[in-house]
What does this fold into?
Amino acid sequence: VINLNNILNEFLSLGKIEDGKIVAHFADFDIKEFILQQCNEMTDIFKPGQIIDYSHHGKTMVTLDENLFKNVLINLLTNAAKFSAENKPIYIATNLGDNQLQFTIRDEGIGISKKDQEHLFEIFFRGSNALNIPGTGLGLHIVAKYIEMMNGKIELKSNLDKGTKINLTFAQ
It folds into this structure.
């Protein structure tokens, strides 16, 4: 039931994005407090021994759409947990300077092949090594759209069986 509900919500979000019904509403919030709160609320998704190693440098007040950023964080954190084994940490780092926020999430999971990385943000695409792991292929497509709405950039680096690192950059 939970998986079906998540699938329906992803389809609804995608439809709203395409119809222009979701727009960014920028506001100031404390990024460090926000990430710590979200990580604490999501502890039930982690496998045994998975922990979040979070570090922050710089100022803490950012200007982003809090709801869109929350959806991005939830998706990326869920993926990191889902595609990593038990007892593997998930690293999150934020760095806020005068002109930009850098957000990084890194795992030591199954990784993504170079061939699959070319299509990763396409709708319904799933990595060839992820076919036995539940998912719709919509999450990263939606994440990319939300990041675009907040005028951000996304970079992904990954190696098979070594993990994935995703960097987000937002002007401030």
